[in-house]
From TrEMBL:
This is 4-coumarate--CoA ligase. Residues 47-309 form the AMP-dependent synthetase/ligase domain. One of its GO terms (biological process) is phenylpropanoid metabolic process. Its EC number is 6.2.1.12. Pfam families: AMP-binding. It catalyses: (E)-4-coumarate + ATP + CoA = (E)-4-coumaroyl-CoA + AMP + diphosphate; (E)-4-coumaroyl-AMP + CoA = (E)-4-coumaroyl-CoA + AMP + H(+); (E)-4-coumarate + ATP + H(+) = (E)-4-coumaroyl-AMP + diphosphate. GO terms for cellular component: endoplasmic reticulum; membrane. SUPFAM superfamilies: Acetyl-CoA synthetase-like. InterPro entries: AMP-binding_CS (IPR020845), AMP-dep_synth/lig_dom (IPR000873), ANL_N_sf (IPR042099). Its cofactor is Mg(2+). It comes from Aegilops tauschii subsp. strangulata (Goatgrass). One of its GO terms (molecular function) is long-chain fatty acid-CoA ligase activity. PANTHER family: LONG CHAIN ACYL-COA SYNTHETASE 2, LONG-CHAIN-FATTY-ACID--COA LIGASE. It comes from the Eukaryota.
């Protein structure tokens, strides 16, 4: 007989059929470069200025400023002989350099591979080799641990680029292993002017995200430009139907790991609209302090985060706080407070 089959379900938000992707958008780079043309002076990426160990107000870079740095980093990547289709890694907490490294890879049609702490040293070593990483961008605090596994990963990796500075001793330690090591500013000056960027196709690989490997070695999930563009376009569609679309006056608080797809899609969506993205300090103890200082209009979270906020509110006051669904997006107008 015929195999059993259940009914076919379709989201109510697609009751009239599936969406078509915009013809003019081929990759996430088109979102960014388009926003630079429309909103060059808008605030794009911000972090809290730290002075004498104390975090102050947010300091911002404009779309135009970020674009200039991204083009420099992209040119330096190409100057190192890394060609379109090759792979670079990004390792560290959410910060402006993380996004700029991602956009630099996007500009050159290079696949970026996120790394994150919960993978563990063995998994990071496996991914660097398995993904054939050419250049790894990372926080300064990650370089020491990466240096300890570099002897087993030198088949492909050519350089490590710090998000900040690199102590002389650490630089020498890495270079003794046959791998170049640069500070962010040093690397950004190494490229030559590029007159024309490589063409991107929707089905080119944008990023490879590795699983934690709890059932064996980490598995790489291939995500194409088409998938990222679809995620961004769908986000716009859902907000249009259920709430209010993001515009250039909005600001987004980025703390969910950029190594995961949720924050990448929301970040790319905000960039496509010319909105601002502010980053947390990377310490969960100061998460709500960062929010209070930045006053974002958009806050995304997962149940564990909202449960923490819910518990904190209930311990300090008597209010009615709703339970939130997974991957909830909150919007807030701080002007009404």
């Amino acid at each position: 007989g015929r195999p059993a089959a259940g009914p076919v379900y379709r989201s109510i938000y697609a009751k009239d059929g599936l969406m078509r992707l915009p013809q003019e958008i081929h990759s996430p780079w088109d979102f960014f470069s388009g926003a630079v043309k429309k909103y060059p002076k808008n605030r794009m990426l911000g972090r809290r200025q730290v002075s004498d160990g104390k975090a102050g107000d947010y300091v911002w870079q404009t779309y135009e400023q970020v674009y200039q740095k991204v083009i420099q980093i992209g040119a330096a990547i190409r100057g190192f002989g890394v060609k379109p289709g090759a792979h670079c890694a990004i390792y560290g907490s959410n910060c402006p350099e993380w996004v700029m490294a991602m956009q630099a890879c996007n500009s050159q049609g290079i696949c970026y591979v996120p790394l994150y702490d919960t993978l563990g040293q063995n998994a990071v070593e496996f991914i660097l080799d398995h993904a054939e990483i050419s250049i790894a961008f990372m926080q300064e605090s990650k370089i020491k641990s990466i240096a300890s596994i570099l002897p087993k990963c030198t088949a492909h990796i050519k350089a490590i680029v710090s998000f900040g500075d690199v102590p002389i001793e650490l630089k020498r330690e890495v270079e003794q292993l046959g791998v170049s090591c640069f500070s962010w500013e040093e690397f950004s000056t190494m490229g030559e002017d590029i007159q024309e960027l490589p063409k991107k196709q929707k089905d080119d690989i944008c990023t490879i995200m590795y699983t934690s490997g709890t059932t064996g070695e980490p598995k790489g999930v291939i995500i194409t430009n088409r998938a990222i563009v679809a995620g961004v376009t769908t986000t716009e569609h859902l907000l249009q139907l259920t709430d209010k679309v993001v515009d250039e006056y909005d600001s987004y608080f980025s703390y969910l790991p950029l190594a995961h797809i949720f924050d990448q899609v929301i970040g790319n969506y905000c960039i496509s609209k010319g909105a601002s993205i502010g980053f947390w300090q990377g310490d969960i103890r100061y998460l709500m302090e960062d929010v209070q200082v930045m006053k974002p209009t958009i806050f995304c979270g997962v149940p564990r985060v909202y449960d923490r906020i819910y518990t904190g509110i209930m311990q300090t006051s008597i209010v009615v706080v709703p339970k939130f669904p997974p991957y909830c997006v909150l919007r807030h107008n701080w002007g009404i407070l």
